[in-house]
Design a protein that fits this description.
Elements lengths: L18 E6 L2 E3 L1 E16 L2 E15 L5 E3 L13 E8 L16 E4 L6 E4 L21 E10 L2
Length: 155
């Protein structure tokens, strides 16, 4: 067996193949200018499954009429149909909406299409994309966090 096995198990079918851990630098897309205070990404890849965490603290940004995405994932997602990935936001401080009112942007879906290196933001209410200039950050808010975690399949 070429992979990592557990305890005294030596069966090749039970081995972990292609185990890798690493870091990457995520980029925020959908903004014409951006200034980061901190940004980092961590991933673990086991076989064809990539799990990741992204930490972004953005000092300021100018929104544009382009899809809000977190780019520069460490691997390109699978090009196989019906193998899309996704993520969830586990913390922000008004990145999407800081008016204090409920907004369909606040509970955005974070989706990774096939053959892609971006986590894309969509409204759950109607599936439309969220643009940088739709967010509070893109409209002058400063010092906004965006922390997400997710997984996707690679070829």
């Amino acid at each position: 067996s070429n992979g990592l096995c557990f305890n005294s198990d030596t069966a090749a079918a039970n081995a972990l193949s292609d185990y890798e851990e690493g870091i990457f630098t995520p980029t925020l897309v959908g903004f014409s200018s951006i200034s980061y205070t901190a940004r980092s990404g961590r991933y673990t890849k086991i076989g064809n499954l990539v799990n990741f965490q992204i930490y972004l603290l953005i000092a300021s940004a100018t929104g544009s009429a382009a899809h809000c995405m977190i780019g520069s994932l460490p691997f390109t997602s699978s090009n196989t149909g019906n193998s899309n990935g996704g993520a969830y936001k586990f913390y922000d401080n008004g990145f999407m909406e800081n008016s204090g009112n409920y907004s369909t942007k606040v509970d955005a879906s974070w989706y990774i299409p096939t053959n892609n290196t971006n986590v894309q933001a969509y409204k759950n209410s109607n599936g439309s994309g969220i643009y940088g200039n739709d967010t509070s950050l893109g409209n002058g808010a400063t010092n906004k966090y965006l922390l997400v975690q997710g997984s996707y399949v690679v070829d």
